[in-house]
């Protein structure tokens, strides 16, 4: 990992420590101790297990998509891809580093970069589509709660949904309407032409080739309905495990009255809020969003801060640490 990324990694750990200190500065220490004493570690283990299953299901998706293209990837390398992605997402604004880090992980196995790019883009399209589907479901279940108790967050959540919807729409446009996409790319690159014709031609040519390759791959994947169906189902299942994590944390703190579907729908809304914060990992916004949404589920501030801390360790810091380990372990080069 580069020196810059290492510094960002350390910086995010320090920032996380500062945020947790700030969150606990006015919390009654007795409340925190009481919450720790009543903590059910079995449910915490299940919450961590849900995160591990989330990552393993993504590894299964990677293997299915690559193996369907008359290629092969070992389980060792397939598991490494989502772990490295967690590191990329965690140290870059808007989780923008996840895709490049996955591409690096696949390229290190000896896989052709163009082929790896098409696989990752298709996986990303399905993932974003399932996020939008889940969000629509969450709006139906939890939007009334959001507007009545947390009306100040309504606009942020809706804005997050719009951004995800735009991303999916643009990707679908690239997949099934390359002509329109070519025109949009040329329009976006037009200012470059004012300064350098050579650079414009170079960038435009590369972009057009990528669009054509992605379009061909999309058509191929679209014809392979069996593989596409598996990927969609597994992605949906993957997200359900992730969205269920706060439910297990609440159970660990003795809140047995909570409903699984309702808590999952609220977690979906939090994820939308996090996606709008430019700081890596949505630091600050994630903690505030969790505290605002789940404050009414817990008896006191001590229990709320403890729940938030456990949630961030499982859903964010766990991914950072396993990601940095995965990035630095030896890679198995493909024999094919």
Automatic annotation (TrEMBL):
Where does the protein principally reside? membrane
Highest taxon above the source species: Bacteria
Q: Does the keyword Cell membrane apply?
A: yes
Provide the protein's localization. Answer: Cell membrane
Query: GO MF terms on file?
Result: phosphatidylglycerol lysyltransferase activity
Q: Tell me the membrane topology, using the record's own terms.
A: Multi-pass membrane protein
User: Kind of enzyme, top EC level?
Assistant: transferase
Entries under InterPro entries matching the protein? L-PG_synthase/AglD (IPR022791)
Reactions accelerated catalytically: L-lysyl-tRNA(Lys) + a 1,2-diacyl-sn-glycero-3-phospho-(1'-sn-glycerol) = a 1,2-diacyl-sn-glycero-3-phospho-1'-(3'-O-L-lysyl)-sn-glycerol + tRNA(Lys)
What keywords would UniProt list here? Answer: Antibiotic resistance, Cell membrane, Lipid metabolism, Membrane, Transferase, Transmembrane, Transmembrane helix
Cellular component annotations (GO), alphabetically ordered: plasma membrane
**UniProt GO BP:** lipid metabolic process; response to antibiotic
Where does the chain cross the membrane? Answer: 7-24, 44-66, 124-146, 152-174, 231-254, 260-279, 314-331
Q: What is its EC number?
A: 2.3.2.3
What role does it play?
Catalyzes the transfer of a lysyl group from L-lysyl-tRNA(Lys) to membrane-bound phosphatidylglycerol (PG), which produces lysylphosphatidylglycerol (LPG), a major component of the bacterial membrane with a positive net charge. LPG synthesis contributes to bacterial virulence as it is involved in the resistance mechanism against cationic antimicrobial peptides (CAMP) produces by the host's immune system (defensins, cathelicidins) and by the competing microorganisms.
Tell me its family: Belongs to the LPG synthase family.
The record, for NCBIfam families, names: flippase-like domain
State what protein this is by name: Phosphatidylglycerol lysyltransferase
Give the species.
Weissella koreensis
Q: Which gene encodes it?
A: mprF
């Amino acid at each position: 990992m580069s020196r810059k990324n290492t510094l960002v990694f350390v910086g995010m750990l320090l920032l996380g420590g500062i945020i947790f200190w700030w969150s606990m500065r006015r919390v009654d220490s007795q409340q925190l101790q009481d919450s720790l004493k009543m903590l059910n570690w079995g449910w915490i283990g299940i919450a961590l297990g849900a995160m591990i299953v989330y990552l393993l299901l993504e590894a299964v998706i990677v293997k299915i998509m690559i193996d369907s293209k008359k290629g092969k990837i070992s389980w060792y390398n397939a598991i490494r891809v989502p772990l490295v992605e967690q590191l990329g997402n965690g140290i870059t604004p808007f989780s923008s580093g996840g895709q490049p880090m996955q591409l690096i992980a696949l390229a290190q196995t000896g896989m052709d970069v163009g082929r790896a790019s098409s696989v990752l883009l298709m996986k990303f399209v399905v993932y974003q589509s399932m996020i939008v589907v889940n969000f629509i479901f969450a709006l139906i279940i939890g939007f009334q709660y959001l507007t009545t108790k947390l009306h100040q967050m309504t606009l942020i959540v809706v804005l997050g949904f719009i951004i995800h919807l735009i991303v999916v729409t643009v990707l679908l446009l690239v997949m099934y309407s390359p002509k329109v996409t070519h025109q949009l790319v040329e329009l976006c690159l037009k200012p470059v032409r004012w300064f350098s014709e050579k650079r414009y031609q170079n960038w435009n040519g590369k972009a057009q080739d990528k669009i054509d390759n992605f379009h061909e791959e999309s058509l191929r994947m679209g014809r392979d309905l069996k593989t596409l169906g598996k990927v969609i189902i597994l992605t949906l299942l993957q997200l359900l495990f992730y969205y269920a994590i706060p439910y297990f944390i609440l159970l660990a703190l003795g809140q047995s009255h909570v409903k699984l579907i309702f808590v999952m729908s609220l977690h979906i809304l939090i994820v939308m809020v996090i996606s709008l914060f430019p700081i890596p990992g949505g630091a600050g916004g994630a903690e505030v969003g969790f505290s605002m949404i789940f404050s009414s589920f817990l008896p006191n501030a001590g229990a709320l801060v403890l729940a938030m801390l456990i949630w961030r360790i499982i859903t964010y810091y766990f991914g950072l640490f396993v990601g940095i380990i995965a990035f630095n372990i030896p890679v198995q080069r493909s024999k094919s």
